[in-house]
């Protein structure tokens, strides 16, 4: 691994093929949950990948039985209690999405098992998203008691339509791999045993293709996402506003106590 990536100690990085970088969430004991430092590193790494002349494609996946279980409870608790941490997370959440969008290298996600929250951002935002049949995709924001922030309000309607986006983002219902492919949320669904090989084959195809043509195609298509910037900014700001309220506190307590949440029956707005 070159010095370019020496600081990214919370992410496992390797080269499964020439000019292909693989990023692996590797905390299998917590289903690859994302702590504060991992979130920071995941935000910044895309700028270094963009500037790396030796990389032409990227794979993102998870170790063990999960892609990523999302933000860990310690990070969420800190966001709830500390305004400074909340504002820092707001900036990072914005930078993460825009850094992925603006990275000129094509990104392939290999989504294995559970994919939630911060990890799901990269999984769904990847240029080509591939899931195993046993994958379980959940946007859990409203179950936690906050608005569907991150990139959800931007990318889900574009991929699967407004009706499906509202259903899944407002109810937090899980999607299987086949259902995610059926509604257009992901590019491909394959057998679990074929997931990593399919992702690597796809990344190799991209790394061996016409680089300017592929990168410019990505840039042009991602203007659909850039023009949705006001939607993204609104959703992420409202998510962070929610972390200062009673619903998020109850949502976190319910998760920690492994019980259904008992949210207030009315809202101030």
Topology:
Elements lengths: L11 E6 L2 E6 L10 H16 L5 E6 L3 E3 L4 H9 L1 H20 L4 E5 L2 E3 H9 L2 E5 L3 E3 L2 H4 L7 H9 L1 H10 L3 E2 H6 L5 E3 L4 H13 L3 H11 L1 H4 L2 H14 L3 H12 L12
Parallel strand pairs: 2-3, 3-5, 4-6, 5-7, 6-8, 7-10
Antiparallel strand pairs: 1-2, 8-9
Helix pairs in contact: 1-3, 2-3, 2-13, 3-4, 3-12, 6-7
Number of domains: 1
Which strands sit side by side, in order, in the main sheet? 1-2-3-5-7-10
Question: What percentage of residues falls in helices of 4 or more residues?
Answer: 40-55%
What is the overall pLDDT average?
94
Identify the CATH class: Alpha Beta
Q: Strand fraction band?
A: 15-25%
- How many helices? The count is 13
Quote the distance from N terminus to C terminus.
Answer: 51 Å
CATH superfamily: 2-enoyl-CoA Hydratase, Chain A, domain 1
Characterize the biggest β-sheet. Answer: 6 strands, mixed
Shape, per Cα inertia axes: globular
Topology pattern, helix = H, strand = E: EEHEEHHEEHEEHHHEHEHHHHH
Which stretches of 5+ consecutive residues score pLDDT under 50?
none
Count of DSSP strands = 10
**CATH-derived architecture:** Alpha-Beta Complex
Radius of gyration: 18 Å
